[in-house]
């Protein structure tokens, strides 16, 4: 092993790091090749002191030498509770250097979403969607990378990064192919669990090759470093003892050699025995003892610096340590000389001019842990007050408040509640949860206790519905939640139960609360919510007389407020599901609008009612052949959620129903694109939820319409599109779609069984709309050979229900079904009528299918060509192939 010392520009901690440095150089070269180069990701892992920070410093040197822009950030052990701490360090300096208009121009629509998380814009007045904020931060890097190409991002001590940053980093890692930026991450192995560990695992999986694990120095390298530091006369025995004492840890080796120089110890075998004592003075208890030797003022200064953790200025430390300014400056100089504190490297952009930081995280940890427990707690309390007095806000003070012992302090409860509101406004619900859980430990006074629980439920609503349910039930069992806030809490509880797949409990909860109230808007709202949850329940049966009670209640509504409008929508959707006249369904829905638009308070991002009600409205229009109105609502939802930065379940559902609109219209290619995007978003929220079923069911239906049967089967297998089915209604009916899929792949018996199960479920619920629950048409076709009598009865029943419903699509599809059971001129006449109805329908795929079937039965080349053109415009490859085959034979065509 060579003992040649690294280049002068390199840190002593870069000994034996040639392979790692070469990997960095190659990655930088790839980045700098041209602006179209894809991003890269390197991950270095190593225990404390193995040179991760030195390797990142060398990365900076190499990148800047190649003309790269380099931004860096570092996690901190005491700062993990500060949301967006690391990503702010990384991106904020570049953005605050811009004029506000310039920053808004660069970030575009993402400015109002990601700006508050980055601390460059004021938050909005509602809870930010965490996924939307995460996507906005990814978009910020993408846009800034175009301006500052070639861009290198360095993240040190990622194991101590806050959870919000790690979520962003994982998302960024998966999308680096879309941007020209190199990301280099350094972390310690292990010591993480839960979401943080999963995020770092995602980062590791996306890296350009395996994670590089740094090793300790070999004895030969330690000898080389020792002689390079102390002189060539250091003898072999002394060098071996240096390695034995430090176990080859580069940081400890450098610190030990500095102690040797300070003590003027002769590097010979006879003095090697003194190395262990010197090494102890550089770490743990030895470091604390050395700190105490500097005096009580210097010790207090170091303790205050460790409490602050970041933004360590002499003035701020002086306030916390209760030191005079001149004494504080003297202590700062003592600690710099003792290599405990140092000025941040200006190149990193960390800290303002005059700020300080600890020389190494090991020192920061040792100093923090050396503070007596009671004093540490008290100092955090003082730090919280100082941070608040400096005007940094409750959220900035919250990390200190979290460390204060509970003491029945209502003022502290108020500060934590305010911090939680600030965290929610920037998209950090986990940070808000920590604040509110700590507030409960204080504990709050009886009059504020249920309000804290309610706010805690708001913080956990998007991520932990089971926990939300518990908090809201407890809050509702206490006195204090009254009026509209209590109604809101009951609605939120029912929503959480719905999201937790406890729909029957959601129905009972709302029903019981409504029974407690006298007549008025609050009771009517809960009655509407009760009918809404019952309306989307996919259980075996509904409560007796539900539809009649809903019809009676809705008959008294004129649409004068949102409770009445909600009841009109619910009555319209219920009538749709039961196959009542489509004109009456549409008329009910029209009455729920104000001048043809959603009423104030009933918008897609309004939380008083939720997304389910508006989807009922839009779907009622979609399946009554009012596709223009339905698509307007679906696209409004998509725009509203995108502009608000709601990138979770709401956006997934919006894409799913935009896809449903395309499918109904016959734009199958566009439908597939929207539904695949919906599934991508739904994957991030979690499998098994109703939104997941909506995307999967519609994608399978669309792929079958396109004639891509094998692909439809693969999607069903991959995403679990099989029993058991969700407790909420999915449109179209998943049993019907799965039955059609089984028939298409040749599993006829299984397909018939599935369609018969759909028949039973629909009958139990009274769902007789053949467009929404189309089991009967497929079952009739499947039984046409083995049980033609039953098939004929089914076709007659479908036609009767379609004529009752009255849309062109329903009647045309029923006629197609009847024609499939006939031959000769009878089939031709039925198909001719089907074509007439479906030509007037907005559903072009069904029109194309009817045209091709008629052209085939009537031997009409003109109709086959017309059907072929329609199929091609729809993206219905299977239909197009069938038409081409008939045209190619040419036999008997007119």
Write a concise synopsis of the structure shown.
This protein has 44 helices and seven strands.
Helix content: 55-70%
Average pLDDT for all residues: 89
**Model regions low in confidence, pLDDT < 50 over at least 5 residues:** 1-10
The secondary structure category is: mainly alpha
- Gross morphology is elongated
Rg value: 34 Å
Q: Proportion of β residues?
A: under 5%
> Which sheet architecture does the biggest sheet show?
5 strands, parallel
Strand order of the largest sheet: 2-3-4-1-5
InterPro entries: AAA_16, P-loop_NTPase, TPR-like_helical_dom_sf, TPR_rpt
Pfam family, one: TPR_8
Domain Orc1-like AAA ATPase: 16-184
Protein name: AAA family ATPase
What does this structure look like?
With 894 residues, the chain is mainly alpha-helical. Mean pLDDT is 89; it is low at 1-10. 53% of the residues are buried. The radius of gyration is 34 Å and the shape is elongated. β3 (151-156), α7 (163-174) and β4 (181-187) form a beta-alpha-beta unit. The strands form 2 sheets. Strands 2-3-4-1-5 form a 5-stranded parallel sheet, with helices on both faces. Residues 16-184 form the Orc1-like AAA ATPase domain.
């Amino acid at each position: 092993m060579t003992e040649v010392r690294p280049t002068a520009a390199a840190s002593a901690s870069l000994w034996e790091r040639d392979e790692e440095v070469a990997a960095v150089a190659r990655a930088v070269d790839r980045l700098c090749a041209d602006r179209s180069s894809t991003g890269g990701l390197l991950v270095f892992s190593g225990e404390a002191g193995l040179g991760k920070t030195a390797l990142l410093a060398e990365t900076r040197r190499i990148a800047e030498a190649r003309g790269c822009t380099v931004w860096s950030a570092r996690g901190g052990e005491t700062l993990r509770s500060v949301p967006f701490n690391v990503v702010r360090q990384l991106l904020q300096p570049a953005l605050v250097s811009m004029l506000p208009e310039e920053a808004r121009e660069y970030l575009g629509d993402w400015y109002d979403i990601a700006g508050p998380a980055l601390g460059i814009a004021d938050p909005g007045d509602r809870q930010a969607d965490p996924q939307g904020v995460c996507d906005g931060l990814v978009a910020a890097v993408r846009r800034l990378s175009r301006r500052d190409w070639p861009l290198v991002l360095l993240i040190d001590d990622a194991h101590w990064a806050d959870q919000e940053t790690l979520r962003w980093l994982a998302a960024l890692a998966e999308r680096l192919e879309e941007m020209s930026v190199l990301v280099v991450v350094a972390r310690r192995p292990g010591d993480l669990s839960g979401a943080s560990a999963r995020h770092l695992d995602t980062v590791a999986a996306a890296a350009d090759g395996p994670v590089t694990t740094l090793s300790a120095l070999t004895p030969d390298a330690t000898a080389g470093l020792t002689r390079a530091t102390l002189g060539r006369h250091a003898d072999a025995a002394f060098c071996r003892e240096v390695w034995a004492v430090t176990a080859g840890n580069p940081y400890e080796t450098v610190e030990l050699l500095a102690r040797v120089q300070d003590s003027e110890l002769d590097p010979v075998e006879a003095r090697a025995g003194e190395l262990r004592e010197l090494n102890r003075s550089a770490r743990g208890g030895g470091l604390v003892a050395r700190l105490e030797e500097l005096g009580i003022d210097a010790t207090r200064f170091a303790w205050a610096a460790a409490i602050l953790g970041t933004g360590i200025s002499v003035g701020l430390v002086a306030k916390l340590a209760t030191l005079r300014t001149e004494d504080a400056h003297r202590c700062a100089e003592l600690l710099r000389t003792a290599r405990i504190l140092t000025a941040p490297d200006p190149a990193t952009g960390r800290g303002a001019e005059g700020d300080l930081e600890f020389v190494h995280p090991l020192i920061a940890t040792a100093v923090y842990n050396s503070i007596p427990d009671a004093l540490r707690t008290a100092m955090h309390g003082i730090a919280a007050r100082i941070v608040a007095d400096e005007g940094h806000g409750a959220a900035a003070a919250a990390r200190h408040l979290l460390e204060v012992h509970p003491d029945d302090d209502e003022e502290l409860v108020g500060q934590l509640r305010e911090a939680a509101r600030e965290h929610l406004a920037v998209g950090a619900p986990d940070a808000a949860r920590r604040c509110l859980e700590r507030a409960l430990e204080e504990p709050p006074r009886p009059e504020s206790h249920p309000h804290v629980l309610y706010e805690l439920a708001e913080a956990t609503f998007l991520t932990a519905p089971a926990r939300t349910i518990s908090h809201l039930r407890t809050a509702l069992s206490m006195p204090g939640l009254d009026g509209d806030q209590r109604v809101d809490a009951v609605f939120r509880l029912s929503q959480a139960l719905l999201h937790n797949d406890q729909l029957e409990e959601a129905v009972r909860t709302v029903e019981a609360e409504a029974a407690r109230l006298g007549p008025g808007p609050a009771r009517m709202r809960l009655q509407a919510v009760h009918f809404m949850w019952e309306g989307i329940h996919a259980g075996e049966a509904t409560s007796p007389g539900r539809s009649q009670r809903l019809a009676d209640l809705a008959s008294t509504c004129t649409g004068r407020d949102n409770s009445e409008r909600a009841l009109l929508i619910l009555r319209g959707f219920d009538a749709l599901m039961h196959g009542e006249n489509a004109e009456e369904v549409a008329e009910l829905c029209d009455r729920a609008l104000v001048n043809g638009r959603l009423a104030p308070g009933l918008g897609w991002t309004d939380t008083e009612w939720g997304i389910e009600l508006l989807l009922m409205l839009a779907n009622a229009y979609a399946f009554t052949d009012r596709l223009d109105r339905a698509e307007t609502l679906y696209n409004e939802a998509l725009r509203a959620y995108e502009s608000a930065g709601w990138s979770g379940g709401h956006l997934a559902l919006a894409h799913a129903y935009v896809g449903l609109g395309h499918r109904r219209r016959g734009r199958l290619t566009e439908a597939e694109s929207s539904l695949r995007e919906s599934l991508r978003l739904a994957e991030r929220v979690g499998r098994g939820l109703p939104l997941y079923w909506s995307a999967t069911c519609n994608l399978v239906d669309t792929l079958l319409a396109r004639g891509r049967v094998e692909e439809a089967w693969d999607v069903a297998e991959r995403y679990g599109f099989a029993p058991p089915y969700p407790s909420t209604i999915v449109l179209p009916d998943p049993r019907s779609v799965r039955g059609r899929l089984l028939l298409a792949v040749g599993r006829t018996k299984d397909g018939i069984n599935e369609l018969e199960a759909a028949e039973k479920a629909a009958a139990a619920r009274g769902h007789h709309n053949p467009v929404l629950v189309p089991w009967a048409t497929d079952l009739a076709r499947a039984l046409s050979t083995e049980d033609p009598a039953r098939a004929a009865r089914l076709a007659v029943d479908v036609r009767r229900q379609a004529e009752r419903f009255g849309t062109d699509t329903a009647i045309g599809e029923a006629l197609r079904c009847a024609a499939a059971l006939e031959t000769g001129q009878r089939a031709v006449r039925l198909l001719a009528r089907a074509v007439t109805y479906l030509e007037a329908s907005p559903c072009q795929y069904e029109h194309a299918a009817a045209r091709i079937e008629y052209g085939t039965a009537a031997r009409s080349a003109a109709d086959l060509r017309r059907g072929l053109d329609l199929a091609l415009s729809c993206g219905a490859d299977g239909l197009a192939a069938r038409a081409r085959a008939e045209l190619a034979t040419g036999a008997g065509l007119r």
